[in-house]
Amino acid sequence: MKILKLILKNSLRHKLRSLLTAVGIAMAILAFGLLRTIIDAYFFGVEASSDTRLITRNAVSLTFPLPLAYKDKIAEIPGVSNVSYGNWFGATYIDPKNFFAQFAVEPESFLQLYPEFIIPPDEKEAFLRERNSCIVGRKLADKHGWKVGDTFRLTGTIFPGDWDFVIRGIYDGRDKATDETTMYFHWQYVDERMNATSPGRAGQVGVYYIAVEDANAVAGVSAAVDATFDNSQDETKTETEKEFQLSFVSMVGTIVTSVRIISVVVIAIILLVMANTMAMTARERISEYAVLKTLGFMPKHLVGLIFGESTAIALAGGLLGIGITLMAVKRFGIFLTENLGSFFPVFEISATTITLATVAAVSVGVIAAIFPAIRAVKMPIADGLRQID
Amino acid sequence: MSAALVEIQEVSKSYRRGSQTIPVLQGITLLVPPGEFLALMGPSGSGKTTLLNLIAGIDKPDSGGIVVSGTDIVSLSESQLAAWRARHIGFVFQFYNLMPVLTAYENVELPLLLTSLSRQERKKHVETALDIVGLADRMQHYPNQLSGGQEQRVAIARAVVTDPTLIVADEPTGDLDKESAGEILTLLERLNSEFEKTIIMVTHDPRAADQAHVTRHFDKGVLEELNRDASSAD
Ligand SMILES: Nc1ncnc2c1ncn2[C@@H]1O[C@H](COP(=O)(O)OP(=O)(O)OP(=O)(O)O)[C@@H](O)[C@H]1O
Ligand SMILES: [Mg+2]
């Protein structure tokens, strides 16, 4: 018989109490794991974005357009290797709940700038040729059961009217973080209709995508672009793609902060649950600890017993929680990437989160044992023995 | 009588309750020779348990000296005392105080875990001790599967398994029916006569006191004069 066996037997003594405590910890770890995974997923898209690509938009706001004429001026700026442009289209496919991102882009330069969209050469060829064709991401295609050659109609909101498209290509992401839920089509298709129906809105561009030759020149090029359009009618704001993405993320920064705080609060709650269990346990065991001391067991033995029991329960709960989290993240992840893939391209539990959850569970076990251990060690034997009567 | 196993000289002990000081033992002097089976009797609250705790090194006197088997235990530190208790004292409590999660075998093995004995040696000792108390066939039983008398016998096996110098028992039959109490007393008597264990036993039970060689009466923290049982010889 070893001390370890005694620890194990003690932990299983009040099976229901230990079980409830462990399940409580498991639930908290689940909440902790999910919250952290959501935050991770949110920032993953940012991580994946390039910092050698620049995005130029109207300095006033993203909703104000820029003239198409800027394209050639930008292309002339030293250090710029390629320029493309596009518009957020924002139309509805049958029902608003089918939301997915659509961009009207200049297709040839756009695909050069975004090599992470992998598309078979023949499909690319067909897409570039046909004015009303589009390409869609693999996940988006899967969701709606689309195949190459299928047609569908969008109902415009920003650009009114019915818009018919034929799918000429389905792209795959080069990296896991590459978004596969977006539709890209010809800017020209929109511009032609605008020319005919509301000429004032023709020749307008939402953002310019700029490729920079040398990563070190990014800051200089960015400043040069904005300087070029200083004091013109439409001043520009140029950022790296990463900064551009982050400006969206920081809009919800307070939410992210709250989620972080909640995940810490969750850990504090399980600490209270665990501390309560250990305090109850220690109170019941006072006379047993006194007997052990009488037999010659030292403070270190009692400390080992108490910490061992506490961490055993906490760790069991923690591991159970991590197990549930892994399953939940998997199922939830499938749902998220199918429905909100452009915000959560990747939804996976990170090694850091697993480590943190384990550390949190073990720390909770250790911290909850501190006071009971001190109490057991300090308690005079004679007083402890008297407790039985 | 110069070679007493337990020498208690002028021991006093009081407890503090709030601002009040309650004297419990007042200048107790007691010599216990080796091989003695001593019964301490007295009314509730007279300080019997307190004295036993002092002798066994789980509490310290306010003044006076306690020497057990040549060791001045008053001067030992907490951890020295713990090691000393493990080697020299066997304890028997009124409520047995077995670990409920451990089997009879594991309960008896408990004090041996503090020694350097191998698993095999421990097994031999535990089996011998359980054999002495007549529970060799109950080794794998848990305390709640045993009767009170059997539990107390396991506790006695736990007290003797380390072959201690002195066995202290605080009302070992206090929670038992007559028959079981008789068995426990017979067992203690046998440990004393056959295995030459020195035993100091606190009891309320006159029958228990009869079993001992010597009975000392306690009242209000003072020991009454020696009253040696005529039937027992030295
Ligand atoms: N830790 C303590 N704090 C305060 N008072 C105590 C403490 N321990 C014992 N006493 C008091 O000391 C006195 C003697 O107690 P003790 O337990 O030694 O008596 P006892 O003779 O063993 O009694 P009983 O026959 O009821 O077991 C009692 O009045 C008791 O209340
Ligand atoms: Mg008592």
Explain what the structure shows.
The complex is a heterodimer of chains A (389) and B (234). By secondary structure, chain A is an alpha+beta fold. Chain A folds into two domains: 2-45 and 252-385, no CATH class; 60-234, no CATH class. Chain A contains 13 helices and twelve strands. In chain A, the strands form two sheets. In chain A, strands 1, 3, 4, 5, 6, 7, 8, 9, 11 and 12 form a ten-stranded mixed sheet that branches. A two-stranded antiparallel ribbon of chain A has the order 2-10. In chain A, a hairpin with a 4-residue loop joins β7 (151-156) and β8. Chain A is elongated and about 100 Å long. The mean pLDDT of chain A is 89. With 234 residues, chain B is α/β, with parallel strands linked by helices. Chain B has one domain (34-49, 77-226): P-loop containing nucleotide triphosphate hydrolases (Rossmann fold, 3-Layer(aba) Sandwich). Chain B has seven helices and ten strands. A six-stranded mixed sheet of chain B has the order 6-7-8-3-9-10. Chain B has a four-stranded antiparallel sheet with strand order 2-1-4-5, covered by helices on one side. In chain B, α4 (119-132) crosses α5 and α5 (148-160) runs parallel beside α6. Chain B is globular, with a radius of gyration of 18 Å. Mean pLDDT of chain B is 90; it is low at 230-234. The interface between A and B is medium-sized, with 24 and 27 residues. Bound molecules: adenosine-5'-triphosphate and magnesium ion. Magnesium ion is lined by residues 48-49, 170 of chain B. Adenosine-5'-triphosphate (ATP) binds next to β1, β2 and α1 of chain B.
